[in-house]
Design brief:
Layout (H helix, E strand, L loop, with lengths): L19 H36 L23 H32 L4 H14 L3 H13 L11 H25 L3 H9 L4 H12 L1 H16 L3 H6 L22 H8 L5 H33 L1
Length: 303
């Protein structure tokens, strides 16, 4: 007994828009597109509003002058906040990048299946969901309140430490996952030619996973640069230039753009509100640029 497949006519393969399945398909596609637009719309509106309001307040002087005292209109700058943001974020990166990459290497290469590694992964996942203000309070109690940094309380170093705590989960997770993506055959090949585990990790596995690691580092820095709550409890704010006599300004309170937005945005003076919008513009551009850089790194290394 033979079974013959039914013959299909040429017209049965053509797309017919009137068929119920095609009508349902178009309807569900439209619904999915609408939900996607709703999800992206707040981001687009925020970006447009900040770029319009903040861009109108941007001028060259704003990068080289101090903010004016409340009630005055001159000078009109935020150079101290820009320097403070760069300094605090750099301190956080210097602390978190070595620790985060080292922790990710341990989880991926040395303790992949141990109970300790599972506990660390669980802790990292929990830490990534902790509100940033809790991290600020933790560093305040541990560093600021105890004055362990050369007897100083509010400092740029304390602010950098609080940002490092926020950056650690992202760097550890991306390093862990990135090194897991490296084919195991590369490790076996390195062992086969007599390479030690240290040489295999540093010369073979780590370079192969540099793309996701670099992407995670950039995203972590972008997130930390826009944080406000931890910096209020750790480096406070200063309307002056960094005090270079006190550890290059790192052992004293410093201004940051996020805290400046928080302080100036509620003031009744027009100049301060303009500076808050200008700081929002600069901060959004920096964070947007960092995210675009992360996407470019991922695409460049995937070629």
């Amino acid at each position: 007994m033979t079974i013959t497949a039914p013959r299909l006519g040429a017209t049965s393969l053509l797309y017919e828009s009137s068929k119920p399945r095609n009508i349902v398909n178009r309807g569900l596609t439209a619904v999915a597109a609408m939900f996607s637009l709703i999800a992206v719309l707040p981001l687009i509106l925020v970006l447009i509003y900040v770029l319009i309001k903040g861009g109108a307040s941007i001028h060259p002087r704003i990068f080289f002058e101090l903010p004016p005292p409340p009630g005055l209109s001159e000078p009109k700058g935020m150079g101290n906040a820009i320097i403070g943001t760069i300094a605090v974020t750099a301190i956080g990166a210097l602390v978190s990048i070595p620790v985060g990459i080292g922790g990710g290497i341990y989880l991926a290469e040395m303790g992949r299946t141990t109970k300790f590694a599972d506990a660390v992964r669980f802790g990292v996942n929990v830490l990534s969901g902790v509100p940033s203000i809790i991290c600020g309070l933790f560093v305040y109690a541990l560093v600021v309140n105890t004055r362990v940094i050369f007897g100083e309380s509010f400092t740029a170093v304390a602010g950098g430490i609080s940002l490092a705590v926020l950056m650690l989960p992202t760097i550890i997770k991306t390093t862990d996952e990135g090194m897991k993506l490296v084919p195991h055959e590369l490790r076996l090949a390195a062992y086969g030619v007599g390479a030690s585990r240290f040489v295999t990790i540093t010369r073979v596995v780590l370079p192969a996973a540099i793309a996701p690691i670099a992407t995670g580092v950039v995203l972590a820095i972008a997130r930390a640069a826009g944080e406000t709550a931890p910096l209020i409890f750790t480096c406070l704010f200063s309307p002056f230039w960094p005090d270079w006599e006190r550890g290059l300004g790192l052992l004293a309170p410093v201004a940051t753009m996020s805290v400046q937005i928080y302080n100036f945005g509620v003031m009744p003076f027009e100049t301060q509100r303009e500076l808050a919008w200008a700081a929002s513009f600069v901060l959004v551009v920096l964070i947007l640029g960092a995210n675009l850089l992360a996407r470019w790194l991922a695409r460049f290394t995937a070629r």
